[in-house]
Amino acid sequence: MNKINRIGHIALIVVQDIGLLIIGVSTIVAVGIEIGVMVEAQTVTLADLLLLFIYLEVLAMVSIYLESGKLPVRMPLYISIVALARYLILDMKDMETWRVLGVSGAALLLAITVLVIRFGHIRFPYPHVEEDN
Predict the structure, then answer these.
(1) Residues 31, 29: Cα–Cα separation, whole Å
(2) pTM value?
(3) What are the strands, taking DSSP E only, across 40-121?
């Protein structure tokens, strides 16, 4: 039974790595497409920069996960905050006041969540666990 568990674990790790590789390559392709759009338009807007920043955060998240095998919960929260800011910047003119407040409130809630998580990690750190090899 132990051998089956080990083979299953290795198979899941391989599938995770393939998935992360697909995400990484897709993100790099998306960066290339966005750069092509900026070159074609001969301009760089704040929305373009924020989108590139989101792509950079996704690549950093993939890198951290590949390196450590752990995904910090804060990374997707940061990406979400930037995505909401980009949404506000792009569509604010056409938004109703309540939608602007709702999106802004969501970004604020995510920022508070990051602060709570950071506080929790500092105040209540995880015990270091030695891995069996």
Answers:
(1) 5
(2) 0.76
(3) none
Which CA distances in Å does 57 have to 41, 81, 112?
24, 11, 19
Q: How far is CA 111 from the centre of its chain?
A: 14
**CA-CA distance, 85 to 97, in Å (whole number)?**
15
> For residue range 31-50, what is the model confidence (pLDDT) as tens digits?
999 999 999 999 999 889 98
**C-alpha pair distances (Å), 15 with each of 9, 19, 23, 53, 91:** 10, 6, 12, 27, 38
Mean pLDDT of 71-96: 88
Task: Report the C-alpha gap between 56 and 31 in whole angstroms.
Answer: 9
Report whether 49 contacts 89 (CB < 8 A).
no
Contact in structure between 86 and 47 (CB atoms under 8 Å): yes
If 0-12 CB within 10 Å is exposed, 13-18 middle and 19+ buried, where does residue 53 land? middle
Amino acid of residue 4: I
Q: Long-range contacts made by residues 60-69, C-beta under 8 angstroms, separation at least 24? A: 62/20, 62/23, 62/24, 62/27, 65/20, 66/17, 66/20
